[in-house]
Amino acid sequence: MCDLYDDLETKSEPEVRALHQKQISGAEPIDVVIMSKCTDHCFHKDCLRNQMKEADSIRCAVCNQIYGVLTGQMPPGRMDWNLEKQKGVLHGYPKE
């Protein structure tokens, strides 16, 4: 998925460190996006673009924060719920 890291498993640890050092120093520039809701997580701009091609939303790979509108197959209708103050009681199940 990521052109920058496609062959990462085949590289030795010194090669990976050298690649990261090039990125940090700017010798091999990359576009990085800092996520707005989880600001300590960042991703390659091209990787995020590829994810957005597949769906209208993306999910942070680190903390699962959703960006965009999450849609999927849902039945028609409306879901209602309410919070009951009785603790430990599930309707339809006998009390123990």
Total number of beta strands: 4
Low-pLDDT runs: none
Radius of gyration from the alpha-carbon trace, in angstroms: 22 Å
| Rounded average pLDDT | 78
Number of DSSP helices?
2
String of helices and strands: HEEHEE
Which structural class do the helices and strands define?
A: alpha+beta
Query: What is the beta-strand fraction?
Result: 5-15%
The amount of helix comes to: 10-25%
The quaternary state of the protein chains shown equals single chain
Give the CA-CA distance, first to last residue. 53 Å
Spatial sequence of strands, sheet with the most strands: 1-2
Q: Biggest sheet, open or closed, and with what strands and sense?
A: 2 strands, antiparallel
Which overall shape is indicated by the principal axes computed on the Cα atoms?
elongated
Describe, in plain words, how this protein is organized in 3D:
This protein is of the alpha+beta class. Helices cover 24% and strands 12% of the residues. It has a domain at 30-69.
Features:
24% helix, 12% strand, alpha+beta, 96 residues, 2 helices, elongated, two-stranded antiparallel ribbon
Q: Quick summary of this structure?
A:
The chain is an alpha+beta fold. It has helices at 13-25, 45-54; strands at 32-34, 42-44, 57-59, 66-68.
